[in-house]
Write the structure tokens for this entry.
Amino acid sequence: MNVKATAKYIRVSPRKARLVVDLVRGMEVEMARHQLLFSKKNAAEPVLKALNSAMANAKNNNKLDTTGFVITAATVDDGPTFYRHRPRAHGRSAPIRKRMSHIMIEVGAPEGEGVKEVEKAEKPAEKKAAKKSVAKKAPVQKTTKK
């Protein structure tokens, strides 16, 4: 079973983010984490966040044993683009494109291996304590010295 995580509207150009994603596609998750932690690329941080999110989804939402998982698919798609303008010579302006990315990471067991579900530990039956009726005490009156 493959589990996805998506990071949307990341303020990194898709071309630069694809360089980082191409490094880790197909790797084991632990190796990919080390690769991303020590990468000097600016796009490595959001890719690492998406990878950690996919692993957390597998562990918490789907109750899977995540040991030995690999990155089965990783894509970077174009997001919206902010357009800004820069003044140029002779009163003209040139556009500046501030691009965004949508990063999708999919993790799963390597091909040929099954996915193990984590067994839930059964909670011991809680004893319901009978409520004891407690007599209320009378309020204490304060005495003042005159």
Summary: The radius of gyration is 28 Å.
